[in-house]
């Protein structure tokens, strides 16, 4: 993210990069899956129906942008997306387009709705 010392221009660049990364349909799909659970490249490539090579390129971009995190265990790499801004964007897209795009946590929408009504 950014610190208190970050200028407005730097914040705008950061947000534009975040949106740019999510504007690619495959990267958006990757973030949807990784916001729900941690995955290794093989499993995620099979779920998405793309090559490991193509997926690795998307994951590299997302990782460099700070959107996904990688955890190494032996020779495997496991990826996750717990970026709060991405989660909020996915929730907003889900509401706008009436689709289940966001992270799947039980009762998450109920808590949001209760918080807004209070």
TrEMBL record:
Alphabetized, the UniProt keywords read: DNA-binding, Transcription, Transcription regulation
- Reply yes or no: does the keyword Ribosomal protein apply: no
The record, for InterPro entries, names: ArsR-like_HTH (IPR011991), HTH_ArsR_DNA-bd_dom (IPR001845), HTH_MetalResp_TranReg (IPR051081), WH-like_DNA-bd_sf (IPR036388), WH_DNA-bd_sf (IPR036390)
Q: Which Pfam families match?
A: HTH_5
Q: Which residues form the HTH arsR-type domain?
A: 7-101
GO MF term set: DNA binding; DNA-binding transcription factor activity
Keyword DNA-binding present in the record's keywords: the answer is yes
What's this protein's name?
Answer: Transcriptional regulator
């Amino acid at each position: 993210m950014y610190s208190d010392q970050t200028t407005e221009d730097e914040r705008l660049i950061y947000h534009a990069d975040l949106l740019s990364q999510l504007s690619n349909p495959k990267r958006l799909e990757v973030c949807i899956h990784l916001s729900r659970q941690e995955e290794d490249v093989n499993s995620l490539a099979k779920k998405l129906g793309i090559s490991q090579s193509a997926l690795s390129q998307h994951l590299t971009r997302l990782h460099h942008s700070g959107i996904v995190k990688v955890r190494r265990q032996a020779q495997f790499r496991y990826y996750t997306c717990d970026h709060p801004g991405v989660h909020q964007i996915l929730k907003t897209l889900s509401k706008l387009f009436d689709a289940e795009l966001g992270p799947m946590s039980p009762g998450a929408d109920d808590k949001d709705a209760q918080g807004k009504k209070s």
